[in-house]
Amino acid sequence: MTSTNIMSPTPPTATPAWHRFERKVDEVKPSKTDINYLVMDYLVTNGYPAAAKRFAVEANIQPKADIESIQERVEIRGAIHSGDIQTAIEKINELSPQILDEDPSLHFSLLRLQLVELIRRCTSTPDADITPALEFATSQLAPRAPTNPQFLEDLERTLALLIFPSENLAPSLATLLQPNLRKDIATRVNEAILKNQGARKEARLRNLVKLRAWAEQKARETKPGGLPDHLNIGLYPEKQQSTNEHSNGNSDDAIMTNNGDIDPMMA
């Protein structure tokens, strides 16, 4: 009797969980129109009027907001980015005095930034006169400082810039002279104006990015190993192209950048 070698069948290989996840992602096909409106909403909310006009033509969509109205926010944020805080405050009050009246914290932050700019100019030369900075602090900030412990702390820290040389400042003081302070306050002003106008203060696209990050974190906590180590959401291949397009775009939108840096959400 001849024995027959019977080979046992090879057990099927289980599909890795991350393969199943990526297949489900590929099955989701968002509408191109929805994506276009997300992009337009971002451009309008964050104040890129030239880019919004161009995109509206290329995508053949009608903006849901008046693009021309963006220019007011562009001018205000441009004034802040350039250090002309007095002009920014005046333009905000022309737009709506309620914006600063109803937000004492934002008003104080703008005035403190104006003090920083005065100190920057007053200390630019060894024999510069610091009187304008002291007078501004006394008349504009000192009366407001007692109303809030944080105001008082911020004022004291800002005035310390008059004592120490700019090249030997502690990190907590050096940050006051960095462009990021202008950028952060300009963002707060933009959000306050949008809120005053009854609009969302943050673009839907940013909310979606935050939601995606939250969902990924929860998924990893719930089922470790159930997701790939890195989730490619398909933005990187277009990164260089979008950067080049933005850098070649209308210079009117450059005012919305910080020292020439492209908004991270635009890159």
TrEMBL record:
Stored InterPro entries: CRA_dom, CTLH/CRA, CTLH_C, LisH, Ubq-SigPath_Reg
Pfam family name, one: CTLH
Annotated region (Disordered) at 240-267
> What residues does the CTLH domain cover?
69-126
Q: Where is the composition biased (Polar residues)?
A: 240-260
List the signal peptide residues.
none
Function per UniProt:
Involved in the proteasome-dependent degradation of fructose-1,6-bisphosphatase.
Please identify the protein, giving its name as recorded: Protein FYV10
Which organism was this protein described from? Answer: Talaromyces amestolkiae
